[in-house]
Amino acid sequence: MAINLDFSSLLEPGLFTEDPWWLYLLGGAGWTIALAVAAFALALALGLVIGTLRTVRTPWIRHFAEAWIELFRNIPLIVQIFVWYFVVPELIPAYKSWMIAADPLTTQFLSAFLCLGLFTSSRVAEQVRAGIESIPKGLPAAARALGLTTVQSYRFVLLPIAFRIILPPLTSESMNLVKNTAVAITIGLPELTMRANEMGENTFQFFAAYCWATVLYIVISLAVNRLMTTVEARCAVPGFIARRA
Length: 245
Known about the structure:
By secondary structure, this protein is an all-alpha fold. The chain has helices at residues 21-53, 59-74, 77-91, 93-101, 104-133, 138-145, 150-165, 167-180, 192-203, 206-235.
């Protein structure tokens, strides 16, 4: 079976707009970027908190953090997005009423945002925990000797160093998050994968559609990688991780 290598369909007007298909897919990439950035911000905020709680001495707080991580890390991502979009509204009538009245794009984006943000937060939390535990024991001891409280020790000593240590795995996590946004196609969010699928179904040019989508995913991932690598190089802690040029 011969593969159609004709990419001219990308220049044809789309079915839903007068813009060409390549621009229509570029709009989907915008949704992908917005979702990835928002979800990563949520994951980073929650991951820092949950990861920190995993290292405290109070047992019930530590167990709560462990339960959070195991809950969101061990349920398949596609199941989680269905839960947020179909199950949670049934459990919260006020939220369901709001979803019915709101713009579908808003509800789809919100569900995908919560799903990806909470899922990724469990992974970030484990990285934060590992970063804190990799710090030599003399540093928190020195912080206590200086009269810092536990909260102050975490805020001014442990977390700033731990965050800089875990920047390399955070780079991989941010790139994985960009790819995980494709799961939002299952609830109708018009991100890049869904728009590529729409182009293929309406023009029968699946090869051209997914080749262009692949290029866009690569460009986005490389941009994220370069950004995180730059931050990593500027924030590297001598003695913990090699500074990359």
